[in-house]
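Progress note, sequence design subtask.
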């Protein structure tokens, strides 16, 4: 059974990327209105 284990630094990186995407989406929503 192979489960992919994320290291702490990888988790932080993913979390950071998610935050970046969220702010980009907010910027795009702001431009539409």
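Output:
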């Amino acid at each position: 059974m192979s489960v992919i284990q994320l290291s702490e630094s990888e988790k932080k990186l993913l979390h950071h990327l998610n935050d970046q995407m969220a702010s980009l989406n907010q910027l795009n929503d702001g431009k539409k209105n």
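The longest helix spans residues 8-32. Work on this subtask will continue into the next period as scheduled.
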